[in-house]
Amino acid sequence: MLRVSDWAGFAKRELGLTTVFLGFALLALGFLALDRAMGGHFDQSLLIALRTPGDLDNPVGPPSFEEAVRDITALGSFAVLTLVTVVAVVFLVVSKKYAEATTLLFAAVLGQVLSETIKAFIGRPRPDLVAHVVDTTSASFPSGHSMMSAAIFLTIGAMLARVQANWRLKSYIHVVALLLTLMVGASRVYLGVHWPTDVLAGWCFGALWAILCLTVVAWLTRSKDDGGPPAS
């Protein structure tokens, strides 16, 4: 039977998480406001730094590196993330991890809806300072690749790490998930299809979404065991 202190502890923890969520959201929007206040200097200087001097149509580095970055950016595409999500959800269902499977599925679907909604609301144009190395169709802020790769990779990574007893393996899984997220975001700037602040905001929104999804999983799994919300 749950005590009053259990409910109080849970409420206190949820209030703390709400503060974290608001902090991430404000930080993401703050990146956009800061760059506008600076007249776009931050975004423009980083984009130009990644281009060949005197030729803004070509990214720095040999053609083989550019091709590698194209492959990396595909890891955050709708098709690849959908495939990763489906494989992970099926695995969780077969493993009878129904709460995790349902949460991950909703994380992917609602995360994509949230990304497109924010893009439509902000309506920021794509960079026109440099040539785009890959095609784009939607608005710029936030970076959908960055946001969804953070949401999916970090969520799956945390779920996998939870069931590992070895702390080294836990750390390895978290590091891999984080590196995948960072590489996808950085590739969007290198390819000229996003302003750096788009990517920074995408990471913030994606991390926020991952935290929310993992909180839901923790609540569902512990509620199932305890018969109510988890104790702090």
UniProtKB/TrEMBL annotation:
Residues 99-214 form the Phosphatidic acid phosphatase type 2/haloperoxidase domain. InterPro entries: PAP2/HPO, PAP2/HPO_sf. Keywords: Membrane, Transmembrane, Transmembrane helix. The chain crosses the membrane at residues 72-94, 101-122, 142-160, 172-193, 199-220. Gene3D superfamilies: Phosphatidic acid phosphatase type 2/haloperoxidase. This is Phosphatidylglycerophosphatase B. It comes from Terricaulis silvestris. SUPFAM superfamilies: Acid phosphatase/Vanadium-dependent haloperoxidase. CDD domains: PAP2_like_2. It comes from the Bacteria.
